[in-house]
Amino acid sequence: MRRLLRDSGHLIRPAAVLLAGLALFLVIRSALVPKAFGQYGHYRPGALQTIREHPIAFAGHEQCALCHEDEAKTKASGKHAGVACEACHGPLAQHAADPVANVPKLPVVADLCRRCHEKDAAKPTNFPQVVTAEHSGGMACNDCHKPHTPHI
Amino acid sequence: MDISRRDLFKVGGKILVLASVGATLEQIVGAEPAPDAYKMADHWWGMIVDIDKCIGCGNCVRACSKENNVPDGYFRTWVERYVVEEGKQPQVESPNGAMNGFPPLKREDVKSFFVPKLCNHCADSPCVQVCPVGATFVSPDGVVLVDPTYCLGCRYCVQACPYGCRYLKPSTDTVDKCTLCYHRITQGLTTACCENCPTGARQLVDFKNPKDPVHEFLRHNKVEVLKPYMATQAKVYYKDLDGSVR
Amino acid sequence: MIPGVDGFMYPNEVELQWSLLIVLYPYITGLVAGAFILASLERVFKVEAVRPTYRLALLTALAFLLVAPLPLQLHLGHPERSFEMYLTPHSSSAMAMFGFVYLWYLTVVLLLEIWLEFRADIVRLSQTTKGLQRLMYRVLTLGSDNVSPAARRIDDKVGYIVTVIGIPSAFLLHGYVGFIFGSIKANPWWSSPLMPIVFLFSAMVSGIAAVLLLYVASMKIKKMAIDMRCLDTIAKYLFYVFLVDFSLEMLDLVHRTYEADESFRSLDFMVHTRLWGSHVILQIVIGTLGPLAILAATQLWRFSEARRKMLYVTVCCLTEVGIFAMRWNVVIGGQLFSKSFLGYTTYKVAFAAREGLLPAIGLMILPFVIFVVLIKVLPPWKAGETA
Question: Model ipTM?
Answer without folding.
Answer: 0.92
